[in-house]
Amino acid sequence: MSDLAGTFQHEAVAEAYRHRPPYPDEVFDRLEALITDEPRTVLDIGAGEGALARPLAPTVERVDAIDISPAMVDAGRNQPGGDHPNLRWQVSGIETAELDGPYALVTAGASIHWMPWQQTFARIVPHLTPNAQLVIIEHGPVDMPWWDGVAATIKRHSRNQSYNPAYSVADAIQERGLLEPTGTVRTTPITFEQRVADYIEQFHSTSSLARDLMSGEEAAEFDTAIEQAVTPYAKDGVLELQVVAQLSWGRPLAP
Ligand SMILES: C[S@@+](CC[C@H](N)C(=O)[O-])C[C@H]1O[C@@H](n2cnc3c(N)ncnc32)[C@H](O)[C@@H]1O
Asked: Which of these, 171, 251, 241, lies nearest to 22 by C-alpha position?
């Protein structure tokens, strides 16, 4: 595991994670429509605290939610829907997870870039139904008028100075011959209102801005700079965010 992937083991990161914006409902409609085989069983890889797995569980036969971080899985068990009978948590790297397919859908929300692709695909592919799809999902707020100020602050404090916003993990996986692409979609924006304090806190759920990577002084400096950048745009301490998700899916191939 890379050092940055390891930050998801920190309890403070798992705690801050609940402040990330929710996935739009359209994501779940799209995922359900991609399940065409029986049993309607889903494998969620790098499930984290279950932002995908928890809402999906009641609508399918079962979700196996696999994550390498005990802190993230503990957080997920305690979130709404975390104890649904259709949801089976497993703390494990996907490379060595115990799989109980066949799975009609594999979901990877903001997670597959952390995984060793050859091993991951070799592990998953034998456990799929004939028409199973792997869906790579990224989501977040767009078109933020305060973004320049926030981006400059992130740049100053991020532990990942090689971050490239133009990089597409789905394209990279296809180029390696591990995914036969079938479709992509960008969801319609939804409005999500968030308190400034929670907007600031969600940055500390990212691997490169975790509180444990900063001194208390640096974290306070980061928080103040973000607050100053966004406050002119807040109404009564609340920001209005437009959240979209990008889904890319296809047939996973064995290496
Ligand atoms: C950014 S979080 C995404 C969580 C969730 N899928 C979501 O959409 O909110 C990435 C997760 O991938 C997990 N992860 C990283 N490497 C992994 C691996 N090799 N096997 C399983 N989980 C892994 C991390 O522990 C972390 O919880």
From this structure: 241
